[in-house]
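Supplementary Methods, section 5.1.

A reviewer requested that the exact input to the structure prediction be made available. We therefore reproduce it here, unchanged from the version used in the analyses.
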Amino acid sequence: MNYKFSENIEGKGKYNYRLKQIDNNGNYKYYDLSSYVEVGVPKNFALSQNYPNPFNPTTKIDFDLPFDSKVTIAIYDMTGREIMTLLNGDLKPSGFYTANINASALSSGAYFYRIIAEGGNNNFVQTKKMMLIK
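The structure derived from this sequence is encoded token-by-token as follows.
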């Protein structure tokens, strides 16, 4: 059998779950799950593809920071010229983040976005392509 559930967790940490099986006659039994679930602290830096892509005129970019980090996210045109800075500063605490983009002032075309993150004595740089279609 497969079981599925969801919940809203507001704090970082490791969580251990157990399953309560209730039979039709009212008997029940608890089952401890064998592993912990780690919430709120990614293990690695990551940059996701923007969604939706292509977009008009708004999109979002998800990124993960395993450490408190100094982060810069910028948008570049096809010639490599920086045309917009989405974020430039310290992000605390570490965790999962989303940057929202409103490109209503830009023309249709291909653009690149780059993250530069420095934290925990690590540097992370990654670039991805996105398409604006008006």
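The mean pLDDT is 90. These observations are discussed further in the main text.
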